[in-house]
Design brief:
Protein name: Putative fatty acid methyltransferase
CATH class of the largest domain: Alpha Beta
Structural class: alpha/beta
Radius of gyration: 24 Å
Number of strands: 13
GO molecular function: methyltransferase activity
Helix content: 40-55%
Strand order of the largest sheet: 7-6-5-8-9-13-12
Largest sheet: 7 strands, mixed
Number of helices: 18
Shape: elongated
InterPro entries: CFA/CMAS (IPR050723), CMAS (IPR003333), SAM-dependent_MTases_sf (IPR029063)
Pfam families: CMAS
Family: Belongs to the CFA/CMAS family.
Length: 439
């Protein structure tokens, strides 16, 4: 371990700098620096190596998750003890350091740290891998209103039009990019995704001959599930790759009589009087200011007494609405916003829906991300060949961070079952008196 910070004016080693702001003996991670110094236990399953001064510069310029992501993607830090497809454990270790062990140095030590780091010379610029994975449209957004149809289309395309082959390796056979529902902790990912579709189908009370609209339908998993049971299902997505893949799969499975997936904004759906609507993972993309119009539009597409199943990532509290962190917003979900469950249900109710049932599937999303990380690890070489090392590392980092977030209640996943009250002020109760589906 590096020397403890002294009182002299000599430059501090990296190990000394870290030791001056954290208690190291019980550290869950060992940090080894390019100057030969270190911090943390001599023997530790997790080792973070700072291989160049650019690592520190990235942390100084962009404190928090963005600096960590930049340093990791540029290779100025390396992590031993975890696979790049699933760097989940490192987040827990770094959070322990940040929340439980870190403390502010005294003024003299802080000045020595600044001098040792050489802040006047810090200017690593934007890392090349960031330019490779950043969408070009983010450099020309001034003329696009946030959550306008054009901007939403570009944002969705950036995230989902990566490569269908890449998504097949990560998501598995179901091609389902939303939280699964595990009947038990040992269930497979495919079993859990099929069970999720079964749960949504049953909650919506669908039966042969009904009409279903699936907004933000992804690769059409819910649409095909419903169509195989005789439901006429339309799915809409803003991703060209998703729409193309989904429609081809519909034809491949002989479901064209019942199923259709369109490249279309949910705001432009011309039909109405659907028996049910499923919205699985779209609320995160529409923006807090648009919740009212979102639920209003969906209600206008439902027949009186029709049901809406809204499935989305949420915050664990309701005092604020937050945009995604700097790393997620810059690299993963541009313009994404999350809100607490009560905010979402209140907006739905203000739009004229009545809440029948809600539940939190937070542990299920942690399991889902765990299994996606395993899939990426199993196909790592193919994924790197398909999308490049920066993008493959980016997805491992993103999914590992999200898995940790769901495990530690930083984020949750809620399903709301809502009924479209009729025009007679809700006098007619059109659903069974008690829940009619199996958990």
């Amino acid at each position: 371990m590096g020397r403890k910070a002294g009182t002299g004016a000599e430059p501090m080693t990296i190990g000394e700098i870290i030791s001056s702001v954290a208690d190291g003996e019980a550290s869950p991670v060992r940090i080894e620096a390019y100057d030969g110094s270190s911090f943390g236990p001599a023997v530790c399953p997790l080792v973070v190596r700072l291989v160049s001064p650019e690592a520190l510069q990235q942390f100084v310029l962009a404190p928090g998750d963005l600096g960590l992501a930049r340093a990791y993607l540029t290779g100025s830090i390396e992590v031993d003890g975890v696979h790049p497809a699933a760097p989940h454990d490192i987040f827990g270790a770094l959070e322990i350091l940040r929340k439980k062990m870190a403390h502010k140095p005294d003024l003299a030590t802080a000045l020595r740290i600044a001098k040792s780091v050489g802040l006047k010379n810090v200017n690593p610029g934007v890392p090349v891998p960031e330019m490779e994975v950043m969408p070009p449209w983010r450099r020309a957004l001034s003329g696009l209103q946030r959550h306008s149809k054009e901007r939403d289309s570009k944002a969705v395309s950036y995230h989902y039009d990566v490569s269908n082959k890449f998504y097949e390796w990560v998501l598995g056979e179901s091609m389902t990019y939303t939280c699964a529902c595990y009947p038990n902790a040992g269930a497979s990912l495919e079993t859990a995704q099929e069970n999720k579709y079964r749960l949504v189908f049953d909650k919506l009370g669908l039966k042969a001959g009904d009409r279903l609209l699936d907004v933000g339908c992804g690769w059409g998993g819910m649409v095909r599930y419903a169509a195989r049971r005789g439901v006429h299902a339309i799915g809409v997505t803003l991703s060209k790759e998703q729409a193309s893949w989904a429609q081809a799969e519909i034809e491949k499975q002989g479901l064209g009589e019942f199923a259709e997936v369109r490249l279309q904004d949910y705001r432009d759906v011309p039909e109405g009087q659907f028996d049910a609507i499923s919205s699985i993972g779209i609320t995160e993309h529409i923006g807090r200011d648009n919740y009212s119009s979102y639920f209003g539009k969906l209600r206008s597409l439902l027949k009186p007494g029709g049901l809406l199943l809204n499935h989305s990532i949420t915050r664990p509290e309701n005092s604020r609405t937050t945009k995604a962190g700097a790393f997620i917003d810059r690299y993963i979900f541009p313009d994404g916003e999350l809100a607490g469950p009560s905010i979402i249900s209140a907006e739905a109710e203000n739009a004229g829906f009545e809440t029948i049932h809600s539940e939190n599937l937070r542990p299920h999303y942690a399991f889902t991300l765990r299994d996606w990380c395993k899939n990426l690890e199993a196909h790592w070489d193919e994924a790197v060949e398909e999308v490049g090392l920066p993008m493959a590392k980016l997805w491992g980092l993103y999914m590992g961070a999200c898995q940790y977030g769901f495990e530690t209640n930083v984020i949750q996943l809620h399903q709301f079952l809502l009924v479209n009250l009729d025009d007679e002020a809700g006098k007619s109760w059109t659903v069974p008196l008690r829940p009619w589906w199996e958990a």
